[in-house]
Design a protein that fits this description.
Layout: E1 4-11, H1 14-26, E2 32-44, E3 47-61, H2 65-75, E4 84-88, H3 93-102
Length: about 110
Amino acid sequence: MADYVQVVTTTDSEDRAATLARSIVEAHLGACVQVVPIRSFYVWEGAAQDDPEWQLQIKTASGRTDALIEHIKANHDYDVPEVIVTPITSGNEAYLKWMDEETQAS
């Protein structure tokens, strides 16, 4: 696995997104969380849905991924929260170093 990953999840309100994002960076599970408003189409419990959501894009060291996923599941209000992990294969070395520093377990 790559040394760094981006983890994506979504929430149903801007306030919940901010609360989750803040808890992630305060726990040093992610160096940076960007919150973006999106519109999601999906089927849930047999019915097509069309909902506004807020996507959290979390940058972290790959060694923090399991703890981050558990944190998201424990602090999320969805029954089945989206959690998708994508490797970061390259980037600004100074930024990646900063990610390492910010995601050190406390």
